[in-house]
Amino acid sequence: MTANFDGDTKASDIGFVHTIIDKPDIEIIDEVEGQVASFIAANETGKILIKNTGDEEITLDKIYLNSTTNLSFASDVIFEYGDINLDIQECALVSFNITGLKLNSTNIVDVNITTNTSAQYSMDFSVLVDSTLYEINIDDSGSNTFASITGNLKIKIDNVGLFNVTVDSVYINNTFISLSNFDEVIYDIEAGNSIELTIFDVIDILNSIFGSVVDGESLNILVRTKEGAEVIHVEILAS
Fold first, then answer.
1. Alpha-carbon torsion (139, 144, 149, 151), positive or negative
2. Is 8 helix (H, G, I), strand (E, B) or coil?
3. Cβ neighbours of residue 131 closer than 8 Å, sequence gap 6 or more
4. N- to C-terminal Cα separation, the chain
5. Which of 174, 206, 229, 237 could covalently link to 134 via disulfide, CB atoms 3.0 to 4.6 Å apart?
6. C-alpha–C-alpha distance, residues 203 and 104, integer Å
7. Domains with residue ranges and CATH for the chain
8. Cα angle value 178/184/189 (rounded, 5°)
């Protein structure tokens, strides 16, 4: 490879090519050398790496999340690297907290970055949950979890992650079941521990929601936590 530098021709066995678009332009970089650089996490936090790939200096303006929540680069984010002004080929790494959205591992979040120019960039992120830190299971061994058409519904939830979690919601067959229907009032689960959620005379509640249920019907139970961990379990309604 040869190039002109300070009026002299120089030669080299290696070189780097940086693509510069001949207009204002930015890009979200999601990975660097195989390592995650940008993400949205289920505990309502995020981190985004942004690069100026255009031909002029830009100023970062807003981060839009699903077009409903917006964060200002001037006041709502922390710059872990770089700053709000990006020169050509310059990067900035920002982290932030998310309010107004409840995120779980099954969610997709559209992130749109705007600037003081026409340059903007949008990318969809699958919400990240670190399963070593936050993970729950429904214990269906023995009678730990059961549903009786003539009695109760009991769900035993094990916290098998490293951090404490708090149950946030329960769905049965895609229908939200308020936690007020359960006998328990404490929904925190310490790491390595369990809680049991119980609805007495569950058939009354199920009939009021679904019209009628019968012996042998499948109940698709989804439990979600505030930290984003969730679990799905199918329980057969028995007599």
1. negative
2. strand
3. 161, 229
4. 79
5. 229
6. 29
7. 2-126 (2.60.40), 136-236 (2.60.40)
8. 95
Q: What share of the chain is helix, strand, coil (3-state, %, to 5)?
A: 5, 50, 45
Range with lowest mean pLDDT among 89-98, 116-125, 211-220, 227-236: 211-220
Q: What angle do CA 41, 42, 48 make, to 5 degrees?
A: 20
For residue range 183-234, list pLDDT tens digits in order.
998 999 999 999 999 999 888 888 888 888 888 889 999 999 988 889 999 9
